Amino acid sequence: MLGKLLFPFLALTFPLLLRAEVVDIGNAELARLLAAGVPVVDIRTAGEWQETGVVPNSRLLTLFDERGRADPPAWLQQVQGVAKANEPVIVICRSGNRTRAASQLLSQQAGYRTVYNVRDGIRAWASEGRPLAPVSGGVATGCAAGAKC
Question: How far is CA 13 from the centre of its chain?
Answer without folding.
Answer: 27
